[in-house]
């Protein structure tokens, strides 16, 4: 078979701009209808085998008309999406996206700027957005921030700065083998797994992190934390950093931030706060007190596709000490020198993270915050917290439903318990409830295990959710649970 030879003047621009404009308008119409009618579709649906097989076709060698590619995308991709923009998606902790942000991502791609360096308006937008986030979280003037792809990278940046600041040697020059004593980091037993990954990426190993116990509300036990610090000092290790969590992934619990900040101050430790779930409660008028003390962190990780519902992906690391932040990641290169004039006459943003190539993530935040205003996002967070409390009341009122953890913020952990089942049977039973909900397309919730007890987990991070959606959920859990129990009794 003879392959077509590309023309010598090949370009990726359209041959017919007018026809492309017409197709682009069709795409926008499709996108608007997709979000406008989101309630009319299943949240998620299993992918049929023929559709799945279609993603194993060979490499396209020849060009295809863009309208045909668009038609194929509509038929084969969008119907089998994750569904997190649906009002009854409560799986993991995602965020529901935003049309303004989606438009901004398109425009950012058209702008095409690489924000690693360059004196451009895009870089100024990035700097302004990170400064807005600094103000929102109460960090001092002069603190620094960097936009990254999500919370895991934001946490890694904060922990890298903590490691370098506390190492007792110049790690950039000498490496971790030159540390005079091993470092120890501390977190609760509810800490996100990304911190364990970070210990390995930082060359410290998983043994470097000490997991303190939690109280009945799944918050870090400060007495246990202090005892662990004292024990490590007695063994000759160096306590370096406490990782506090403002909204744990399992239950939404918020560690006692003021008490932990006091302890870090007294013990001379770095305070890093993982605020990916709950840091932005700071803008919620009725619930900002939940994260009092967050402004005392030395470093803070944010996940902006959660509390701000920015389209994937964007997170932010804030650091109190901008000089130390820059020193952690800054490397000189002859091809990346600052200039007094021209395109290189501006701060290089790559100096604050591992990324030399940086996308224009800031534009969606800039447009969304300007369009909706910070107050709107705060009210949505308040509403989600109120909805979690509403769901909790519904669960407590039903004798066949059991609440498995206190509802601290926007995550509710519960299970269907008809009685007479041991833990293994309850796990199997509730897993089946969860899967039937997912496969029916009615709702997506996920599960977890806390202190040995399996439970269903509803993470309400969704600006489209209404209270009646949660009423429907409870009714369906009871119906499905009864159906499973009745079927089992008939066997």
Count of structural domains: 2
The CATH architecture of the largest domain comes to 3-Layer(aba) Sandwich
Number of helices: 15
CATH homologous superfamily descriptor of the largest domain = Type I PLP-dependent aspartate aminotransferase-like (Major domain)
Strand order of the largest sheet: 2-8-7-6-5-3-4
CATH topology of the largest domain: Aspartate Aminotransferase, domain 2
Q: How many strands, what sense, and barrel or not for the largest sheet?
A: 7 strands, mixed
Proportion in β-strands? 5-15%
> What top-tier CATH class of the largest domain fits best?
Alpha Beta
Tell me the structural class: alpha/beta
- Over the alpha carbons, how many angstroms does the gyration radius reach? 25 Å
For the residues shown, what is the average pLDDT?
A: 95
Spans of at least 5 consecutive residues with low confidence? none
Shape by Cα distribution:
globular
């Amino acid at each position: 078979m003879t392959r077509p030879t590309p023309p010598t003047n090949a370009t990726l621009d359209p041959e017919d701009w007018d026809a492309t404009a017409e197709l682009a308008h069709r795409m926008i119409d499709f996108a608007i209808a997709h979000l406008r009618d989101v309630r009319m579709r299943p949240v998620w649906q299993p992918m049929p085998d023929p559709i799945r097989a279609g993603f194993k076709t060979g490499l396209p060698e020849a060009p295809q008309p863009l309208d045909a590619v668009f038609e194929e995308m509509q038929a084969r991709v969008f119907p089998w999406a994750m569904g997190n923009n649906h009002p009854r998606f409560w799986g993991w902790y995602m965020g529901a996206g935003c049309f303004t942000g989606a438009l901004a991502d398109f425009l950012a791609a058209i702008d095409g700027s690489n924000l690693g360096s360059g004196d451009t308006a895009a870089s100024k937008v990035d700097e302004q957005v990170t400064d807005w986030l600094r103000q929102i979280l109460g960090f001092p003037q002069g603190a620094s921030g960097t936009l990254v792809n999500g919370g895991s990278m934001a946490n890694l940046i904060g922990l890298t700065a903590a490691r370098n600041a506390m190492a007792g040697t110049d790690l950039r020059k000498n490496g971790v083998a030159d540390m005079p004593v091993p470092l120890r980091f501390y977190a609760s037993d509810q800490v996100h797994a990304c911190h364990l990954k970070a210990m390995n990426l930082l060359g410290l190993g998983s043994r470097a992190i000490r997991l303190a116990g939690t109280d009945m509300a799944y918050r870090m036990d400060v007495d246990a934390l202090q005892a662990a610090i004292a024990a490590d000092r007695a063994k000759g290790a160096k306590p370096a950093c406490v990782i506090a969590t403002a909204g744990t992934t399992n239950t939404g619990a918020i560690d006692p931030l003021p008490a932990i900040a006091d302890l870090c101050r007294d013990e001379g430790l770095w305070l890093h706060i993982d605020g990916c779930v709950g840091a932005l409660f700071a803008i919620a008028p009725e619930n900002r007190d939940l994260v009092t003390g967050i402004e005392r962190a030395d470093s803070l990780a944010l996940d902006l596709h959660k509390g701000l519902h920015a389209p994937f992906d964007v997170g932010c690391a804030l650091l109190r000490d901008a000089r130390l932040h820059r020193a952690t990641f800054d490397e000189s290169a002859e091809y990346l020198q600052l200039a007094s004039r021209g395109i290189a006459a501006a701060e290089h943003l790559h100096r604050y993270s591992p990324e030399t190539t940086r996308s224009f993530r800031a534009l969606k935040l800039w447009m969304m915050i300007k369009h909706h205003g910070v107050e709107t996002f705060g009210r949505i967070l308040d509403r989600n917290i109120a909805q979690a409390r509403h769901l909790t009341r519904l669960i407590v009122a039903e004798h066949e439903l059991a609440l498995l953890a206190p509802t601290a913020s926007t995550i509710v952990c519960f299970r269907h318990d008809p009685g007479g089942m041991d833990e293994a049977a309850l796990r199997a039973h509730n897993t089946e409830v969860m899967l039937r909900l997912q496969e029916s397309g009615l709702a997506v919730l996920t599960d977890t295990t806390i202190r040995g007890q399996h439970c269903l987990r509803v993470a309400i991070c969704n600006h489209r959710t209404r209270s009646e959606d949660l009423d429907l959920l409870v009714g369906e859990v009871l119906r499905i649970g009864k159906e499973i129990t009745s079927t089992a009794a008939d066997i």
